[in-house]
Write the structure tokens for this entry.
Amino acid sequence: MSLLMESLRLGFRRVVEYRASFLTGVVVLLFEAGAFLMFWKIIFHHFETIGGWDFPTMVLFLGYDYLFFGLILSIFDSAHYLGDVIRGGGLDMYLVRPRNTLLLHTLKGIWLYSNDIAVGLVFILLATKLGLSVSIPAVIGGVVLTFFSAYLFSIMLSTLSMLAFWLGKGISELLWPFIWGFGDYPTFIFGKLVPFLKFVVPVFFVATGQVMIVRGAESFIRAGSLLGALILAWYAIRYIVFSQGLKVYGGYGG
Amino acid sequence: MVVMVDELLGIREIAYFFVSIRNFLAYKVAYLKWLLIPTLNLIAFIFVWTTLLSGGRRVGSYDIHAMILYYLLAYIIGFIVSGGVEEKVSGQVVGGDISMILIRPVSYAKHLFFSSLGDRFPLMLVYCVVLVATFIHYNLDILNLVWGAVFLTIGLFTSFLWGTIVGYSSFFVENNWGVKHAMYFVSTVASGAWLPLDILPTQIQGVLNLLFFRFIKFVPIKVMQGSYTSAQMISLIGVGLVWIVALYLTSIFIYSVGIKRLAAHGV
């Protein structure tokens, strides 16, 4: 716990240290968020609903979407550059310590980049102001699900990064286009791809699942169970990949 | 071959074009990501609009087929005209590598043009073939492809010059990530890559029609779809050329001011 608190403190210091960069990030994010709102506003100007979702529901979706990306960037950002650490021999720094190697790497990468999280929470609030009736426990349940969803994707990203043990370079970058391409839209519009997007590259849990819980179209227990099962499965895969990878790892790099 | 072309045209910066092609082939895996992003975005857009326009619904003048064709052309054109030159400039300026180019007897702007062209030339060739295949598949007027080639050239120069202007911001801002990201968004929205400009609210259309971004994607797409008369296209070529000159002069001005702030080790 003390290690986590220290990592959070350092993560906050890093953000404050680069104030100009932080402020630029805020402006850019507001612009980007405005553009997304405009995109959906224009769509809903032409169409009343999309698959039963109206504009306030889409704002809620954007809220969870931003929250997801905020959590990935703030807490789990180290996952996708683990491959570079392995290739450069930087894993030694963690291996010599009597702690969990991957946990240390995750904690070191905490950045507390709170902009996306703030925008996400503002959008969730905005959705209710736009007339979307929600229950507080369901919204909180969605937030909890988003945290674990970000954790799941961090496990997937770090697993793909670990292929650097054999390939010399991780391939986690190849997962991002799927998250960006499909995660920014409600999963149900993808028709026959839905099973793929729910079980294989589960972008359903970026935001769609959360909105369906809030709307009462999905049960928290069922969605949470599926997410939990996916986390366990990927955790096991990552464990095997990491332990096998360490066998071929030399101090000079992977 | 490099030396032959170099001597033939008297433009030594062409060498950067061939070097960039070799880099492209050497780092194929890294480029796969940049191929996947727009491809998956295209798939997402097709699903979105298929959901919205199913059952014979329309938005503006677009039915489902016209909309899918619009995004398909936007996707193809993106590979032909957009080069990521802003990233190249920022990397060279902040890292100080620009000094290695400045000490050579070459023009920095020409170096940028040919190296960014070379970066994407293999993909450009592939997507030119895809463009022709799209014309055949959709039975589009082949004359519009000829006009389209003219507008693609205008789009290529417009995109390149805008990229250099955004990239030169790194002379003034040490970390220009925010500027690049914001300008990428402006360019994406205003060029019609996100939504066809003619389905936007009238006021927004009015503003965007005054800017040059539409020449990067929207205008070439509409030309290829046969939406303009010959007179309109000639008029648009004139407007496009004026924008290219204006962007060129702006680019030169910003470079000449920015280069004075450059230290040999970077900004």
